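Researcher: Re-running this chain for the archive, since the previous output was lost when a drive failed. Same request as before.
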Amino acid sequence: MARSSSPDAADAATSAPSAIVEVFADVVCPFTHVGLRRFVQRRSELGREDVQLRIRAWPLELVNGVPLDVDLVADEVDELHREVAPDCFAGFRPDRFPATSLPAMALADLAYEQGLDVGEQVSLELRSLLFERGVDISRPEVLQALAAENDLDGDLDHRDAVLRDLAEGRRRGVVGSPHFFTPLGGFFCPALDVARDETGRLRVRANRERFDQFLDACLT
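Model: Regenerated C-alpha cells:
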C-alpha cells in the first residue's frame, strides 16, 4: 500500500487515538467523577494519552423518570470523599446542584463534534465545575461561557444527541452510571464497590483489583 508523505497525513496518523474507551454516564453522577479522575490520572502516569474517552450521556433523570435527589447525591459525595476520594469534592455545594443535567450533556456532545480531545476536555470540565467548584452547570451563562472557551458554535440546548445516547445505551445493555466499554469488554463502575449495609447506610470502597483489570482492558 502506498504511503502518503504529506505532513498533514503524518500528523493525523500520529495524533490518532490507539483506542477509544466509551463511557455512558450522567454528568451529575459522583461515582463517575471519581472513576474518570482515576482513569485520567493513571493514563497520565503511564504516558498513554493515546487512549481517549468518549463520554456519552446516560441521563438518570430520564432513566429513573425523576431528577436525581440532591440529598441522595450529597450523601454519596460525603461517603466518597471520606472513604475513597479525599482529593475530590472539596467545593461541592448541594444548594447549587443542577435541576437538570440534560443541557450540560448536550453541550458535551456538541464538543465531541469538534473532536475527541475537545469532547473529553469539556466533559471533564463540566464535572469539575460541579463537584470541585460548586457551580450549577444547568445555568445557561455557565454553559455559554464553557462553549466560548472551547470555540463551540451550535445549539446549546439541543438534546436529541442525549436521547440518541440513551437509546444506544439501552441497546448495548448499560446498567447504570458509569458503564465503560473497553476494547476487551464492558465494566460497570470499575473503580468502586457500592452497597448499603443492614441499616441502609451507604458504603463505598475502592476496588483496586477490578480497576486494574479495567485499566488493562483499556490500555492493552
